[in-house]
Structure formats: C-alpha cells, structure tokens
Amino acid sequence: MGVMEQEKSAFAAALALQCAWGADEALMESPADRLAVREAPSRAPPARPTPEPAPRPIRAAPVAPASAPPALARAEALAEAATDLAALKAAIAAFDGSPLRETATNLVFGEGITEAGLMLIGEAPGADEDRAGRPFVGASGQLLDRMFASVGLSRESNFYITNILPWRPPGNRTPTDAEVALFLPFLRRQVALIRPKRLVLVGGVAAKGLIGGKEGITRLRGRWHEVEIAGLGRLPALPTLHPAYLLRSPASKREAWADLLLLRRMLDQAPG
Ligand code: URA
C-alpha cells in the first residue's frame, strides 16, 4: 500500500471510530482539536510561518449581549407574551437561548386538533421529525399512531400532539434537564393556549418534565396525575411508555395497552 492509501485508510478508520462514538453531525468545516494546547502569545513572537486559519463554524453560535436577561427569563417572557399559537411558534423560532436551534433543521411545533380536549406531549423531535418539521412521523410515531388508533383515537380527529422540546437534540440524544427546563415555559404556554381537558405524557422525559419528582416512567405510568397549568388549573395527566422504548422492548406493549384502556375509559366516562 502506498503512503497515500495508508493515510486514506487511517482517515477512514478514524471517521468510522467517530461514527461508532455517535458523531452524526458535522458542525465545522474542518475538525477542531479541543484538547490541543494553545500557545500563549508572547511579547516578541519569533518569526514563523503564517498559522493555518482557525476553523470557521458553519453556523455561528448565538451570542446574547452581556446585558441580556438569562435565557430562562427570556423564554418565560416570550412565552407569556404570545397570545395565540402562531405568535408562540414565531417566538420559539426567534428564541436564541439554546444551541439546539443552531443544529436542528426545522422547528417542530405540534399538530392535530386543537379543540379535541386531548393533548399528547412527547420528548423531542428525532431525525425524521427534524426533516419534516412535524412531530412523531418516524418509526416511533407510526407505532404511536397505530396504538392510539386501536382505541379509536387519531391526530386527524381526536388529539393534538407536540413535544417538550421543539428542536431535535443532535444525534437524537436524550434532552438534558436544563434543556427541558428552558423550553418548559413555551410548552406550558402551548398547553394554556390549546386548553385541553387532559394530557397524555409520552415517555419519561415528558412525564418528569411536567409532573416533576424523582419517580421514573415505569412507576409513574398506569395512573392519572395532575399537572398545574397557569390559567387552566390542574389538568389530569396520564404518563405512558414511549413508543421508541416499545420498539426496543415489545414485551412492555402490555403496559402501554393498559394505559390506553385507562385513557379510553376516562374519555368514555367524561368525553372531552
Ligand atoms: N420521539 C418523540 O418524543 N417525539 C417525536 O416527535 C418523535 C420521536
């Protein structure tokens, strides 16, 4: 193998290793070695060749002016000022307090029947949702649609569906607690504007984000809780297993089915 081929296969191996570690987004035009020691500038630098230009980010990270209120306070103020869903969507799109906006492709706001009285809240868009700008359209969304159809419910007729986060976390990683806290004012405002009678919290991130506490989804699911929403009071909320989890653990579909029956019973007893 010639030197060129050797270098090529070394680069290919390094790239494969990055992929195995979960890197699936190129954020810079060229790689930056964050561990490299930077030389401190000396007063009289010795003559040396012109340094390589520093890698230029494709999309500059948002820089809030030093006097700007913290991101959470800005999120709260923007959310409160939105008086309808269109204004709320525009406010989220304009909010520059999270780097998630810089790596995502499309804002995923929510869709379905706003007057249905039932609102489903998931975790965050994945790659398919990010491409489409719509919630739950990938494999787990299709399973969710089939599950809800089995109790006679669809986003076309019976519920509105959205996520805790409106932007896809890079590589589909689980949202951090800080990201959830930052976007909760927008989600809470979305609930307040839609005014559902009840919520379904799809997965542990949505359940923990809205119910709080330390209990995981396997303990929270299977019974109704209450979620306080400004202007609406306490809404009944049913946590259930996330369809992405059910795709990995099909045996747990029994529990998800029990949750759906609980929802169906509630809707039959007190239609929205
Ligand atoms: N998982 C979620 O929680 N939400 C989506 O929109 C897609 C997958």
Structure description:
The chain is an alpha/beta fold and 272 residues long. It is 42% helix and 11% strand. A six-stranded mixed β-sheet has the order 1-3-2-4-6-5. The radius of gyration is 23 Å and the shape is globular. Residues 37-53 have low confidence and may be disordered. The structure holds uracil. Residues 122-126, 129, 135-136, 138, 140-141, 163, 203, 244 line the site of uracil.
In this structure, how is the largest beta sheet organized?
A: 6 strands, mixed
Strand content: 5-15%
Structural class: alpha/beta
Distance between the termini: 71 Å
Mean pLDDT reading:
86
Query: Roughly how much helix do the residues carry, as a percent range?
Result: 40-55%
Characterize the overall form.
Answer: globular
Uncertain segments of ≥5 residues (pLDDT<50)? 37-53
Strand segment count: 6
Going across the biggest sheet, name each strand in turn: 1-3-2-4-6-5
Q: What's the tally of helices?
A: 11
What molecules are bound to this protein?
A: uracil
What is the secondary structure topology, with strand pairs?
Elements: H1 3-20, H2 71-81, H3 85-94, H4 100-103, E1 111-112, E2 118-122, H5 127-132, H6 139-149, E3 160-163, H7 177-194, E4 198-202, H8 204-211, H9 217-220, E5 225-229, E6 233-240, H10 243-248, H11 253-269
Parallel strand pairs: 2-3, 2-4, 4-6
Antiparallel strand pairs: 1-3, 5-6
The structure holds uracil (URA).
Search tags:
single chain; 272 residues; six-stranded mixed beta sheet; 11 helices; globular; binds uracil
Question: Brief overview, please?
Answer:
By secondary structure, the protein is an alpha/beta fold. Helices cover about 40% and strands about 10% of the residues.
